[in-house]
Amino acid sequence: MINIQNLSKSFGKLQVLNNVNLGLNINQSIALIGPNGCGKTTLIKCILGMVIPSKGEIKFKGSSIKDEYTYRDEIGYMPQIGHYPDNMTIGHIIDMMKEIRSTEKKLDEDLLHAFKLKDMFGKKMRTLSGGTTQKVSATLAFLFNPDVLILDEPTAGLDPIASEILKEKIISEKQKGKLILITSHLLSELDDMISGLIYMQEGIILLQNTTAEVQARTGEMKISKAISHILKTMNNE
Amino acid sequence: MNRIFKFVMLDILNNKIVIAYTLLLAALSWGVFSLEDNSTKGILTLLNVILLNVPLVSIIFSTIYLYNSNEFIELLLSQPIKRSKIWISFYLGLCSSLILAFLLGAGIPILIYSPDSTGVMMIVVGLFITAIFTSLSFLSSIITRDKAKGIGIAIMLWLFFALVFDGLILFLLFQFSEYPIEKIMVGVTVLSPIDLARILVLLHLDVSAMLGYTGAIFKEFFGTVLGGIITIALMCLWTFIPFFISLAKFKKMDL
Which partner from B8, B21, B96, B118 sits 20 to 30 angstroms from A116, CA to CA? Predict the structure, then answer.
């Protein structure tokens, strides 16, 4: 579905992505993990066309995304920190997005109801807390029932209840066979949500595997433990 | 395009600064015309007032608006919308609302007190100056991501075109007064949209004494009709070139 070939990106002298090759397919739920500043968000923004790669190519369903924009119709993106125009209300934002997408697909309003956002439609974005803003971002990412979901630190800043709602939603979308790409620092909460993982460091992909393989290799059932096990062995080698 | 355009336009028309700008233009125009009993004198005074204020508000307001819309632009970019469409919609939205403010504030009194071709020419000049300086603001806001620097560049551009440029021309004239530099001076005038705007109105008014040095040469060089056509063509270039440079940069920008 998404094919990344020899992707490199540098900001000035800083090389953020270094020759990344990656294939992501439908029916996969993948965790993109790595230390802060390893290029996770840049990789995601490259896929979304928000950052223009210095080198390499990204293909979405077989065709290059360079100078393309219609493919984003099939992606739901939840940014790490959502930025919205201050003066707009939640209702305005959601209505505007509906107009922009003008999709004929059935809207998925599960999160809208679960987060009780309808009661806050008149609130301006400026007055919202970080957590509520994240709820709006999450709702928008799932609203148009896209085939691909890209979630950048989805549960960061959400309260435990909201975080649980979102996790359940991710799991149910995973069962529908969508491609889901999640970045997270909180390894412990990834367990039920993912079927594979990618480990990045300094712009290079060090590891790409399914969770079953990782678990078998390390003998650990918990993903967080399995990863720390692998990292330790890598460092020892 | 219509949705973003509509959003930007409505957002700006609700903005207090644009409302204040409209009222300021209205106050200045009505004031100038009721002070002068002769409408030609009124037009001349208003011309200078407009050539100072309209560029200032257009370039600074647009630059600040663009920086404040950064988040909104980022949000739009993750949606299935073409990059150029976003940028063009923002330009059209900003430009149309500032033009509307100009028409309401200055256009109405101009047409009431000077309902002839000179009045129309004044309005055309106002529209061009708004479009040109909005276009320059797109350039200054894309050059740097730092808001303070961007606004600084916008202020410098205004200062240069509104004040420094004329000083430079005078300086050149005095320095090279012994050489035949008339043709070069006509070429130099092209470099300032405000000078072009002034020449366009004065050519029309036929007040030779007010044309100034470059204007007089311009008139001698091209005559009134051809001069008018050439100035309008040049002002079109001044509108499009800065905007297209900014558009090309926006297409390659990382957000």
Answer: B8
